[in-house]
Amino acid sequence: MSGHVDLFEEHGEVAALWPEGPYRGRTVVCFDRHLDLKPLAPGGEEALSLSAARGENPAGLLRELPVRGVPGAFGLDDFWSAAAIAAELTELVWVPSWTSHPGWQATAVDCVSLIATGGTAADPCVSDCCLTVRLCGVRLAVVPADLLSRHLTAHVSGEVVVDIDLDWLMDEHGRADHTVDELAGLVGACGGELSAMTWSTRSGFLPHEFRRVGADVAARLGMRARTSSFLPSTPWPEDLLLNVHRGRALQADDDADGTAAPGVVVALRGLSLAQDSPGAAQECYERAAARGYRSSWLAYKIGIAHYARGGHRIARDWLREAIGIDGRDTLAMHARIMSVRATTRLEGPRTALEELHGIAAQLPLRAGVWRTMRLLAEHTGDREVAAGARRQLELIQGLTAPRPGVPHAAGPGGGQV
Questions:
Q1: DSSP tag of 74
Q2: The 3-state secondary structure of 211-250, one letter per residue
Q3: How confident is the model at residue 412 (pLDDT cuts 50, 70, 90)?
Q4: Where are the beta strands (DSSP E) in 214-372?
Q5: What is the DSSP string of 129-175?
Q6: For FRET with 240, which of 208, 321, 352, 384 sits at 20 to 30 Å CA-CA?
Q7: Across the chain, how many H-helices and E-strands are there?
Q8: How confident is residue 306, by pLDDT bands cut at 50, 70 and 90?
């Protein structure tokens, strides 16, 4: 490879390149610790569709802060879903930071199992090198790094373009999973062009001291890294989100009103407190809401903390708060599952089973949902629903423990019942 590669702070900023059509008719191979594919936040799909119809640059719709619930149609966590609408993305290969291991298919299924299907067919299938599934308008292949060459040979025939999130190399604690040489070798095996790289320091996933790896990767590929970020600095210390991801309690936010996003700052402090002190986190949520920011992430964390302490009613209230804010986010889907468990304890299995039906239709690959449905149906004597849940569990089992060398599909529509 030669020339330059654009290096951005956040994944969403890569949208600035979309008018050039980098994904049109190509398979995108993305190296990333996290899968940035999930349903868009409320209003996002409509805004992107309108922008595309007008021929506008979708980068203008990017959230300026690395959290959901702030102005903008998309951001770092739903970047690929936005690309399906605004950048003609159809084929995505996600190379996670983990490699193949006994039972890796189950790990792959788990990684996508909380992404709501919207009722459309997921069509999951596994082979000896990948899990493929249709989600958020994209045909996704989950491919462990050590199986990537095999996948490219067997399943990719057209042009390839590569996207790199540098947190693929190491986690928020600075623990390395891969070397620059490993990544460069895999990128070279892909062929095609390297579209962009992302630091993910601003969002707290790559410690600042490792930002140099961007230039290192580019140099190893014979390219120059060109800094192309355009988002403003966050209105909080650079390491604040890093410390949230590390699980560290943040310092008091008494001066939050002096920032450009006081509600978000208060909510982030609440996130750092939720596990150990849900009461203090609740206070942060209320203060953030009073400043105009309702955080589904914080409401979810408060609900989970209360559930762990046996406070099922207050847990359900907070989980439902999270669902009400951003109902199709992956956190909200897990909140729905935990809310059903709370309902089981508060109102019994029949009411819980009624609540679970709508969730199961959205999550055909979430084995825990279908096990719960089977147990609740058996307890209430609903043989038809119990039998359907057992069939779905068998289909998921076929995906997560396939016979060697034999591709396995989960039937039409992902085997939904």
A1: B
A2: CCHHHHHHHHCCCEEEECCCCCCCCCCCCHHHHHHHCCCC
A3: very low
A4: 224-227
A5: S-EEEEETTEEEEE--GGGHHHHHHHH--S-EEEEEEGGGTB-TT--
A6: 321
A7: 15, 10
A8: very high
